[in-house]
Design a protein that fits this description.
This protein is of the alpha+beta class. The chain is built from four helices and four strands, in the order H-E-E-H-E-H-E-H. The chain has a four-stranded antiparallel β-sheet, covered by helices on one side.
Length: 110
């Protein structure tokens, strides 16, 4: 499984780069060898629930809210809107990652 986790970490790094390139604010551990394949993000101070609902209509499922960590969100300044979270699964096909990247970019860049 270490090789599969490494691949998932590489895939989430691709997703994070696409999110940033489209204008999203991303929060994650920068040392890819220590991170799980997840990235939290916000878009122009939109409520994370609204982001999640819009992306779900486009076929992308993300988590949203305060992740049971309201004090962390106070520190980050995201306590009002929360953050959206996207993860890559172990063994997730590359075509699904590329579809997600394209969809996320189109959604954010609008």
């Amino acid at each position: 499984r270490p090789a599969q986790l490494r691949i998932a970490r590489e895939q989430i790094s691709q997703v994070e780069t696409a999110l940033k390139d489209a204008g999203a604010r991303c929060l994650s551990i920068h040392d890819s060898s220590r991170r799980m394949p997840t990235v939290a993000f916000s878009v122009d101070r939109q409520a994370s629930g609204e982001i999640a609902a819009a992306l779900r209509k486009l076929g992308i499922v993300v988590g949203s809210g305060l992740q049971c960590a309201p004090l962390a969100h106070q520190t980050l300044g995201t306590e009002r809107e929360g953050l959206a979270r996207i993860s890559v699964g172990i063994g997730q096909p590359e075509r699904e990652i590329q579809t997600a990247i394209e969809t996320l970019h189109d959604f954010i860049a609008v």
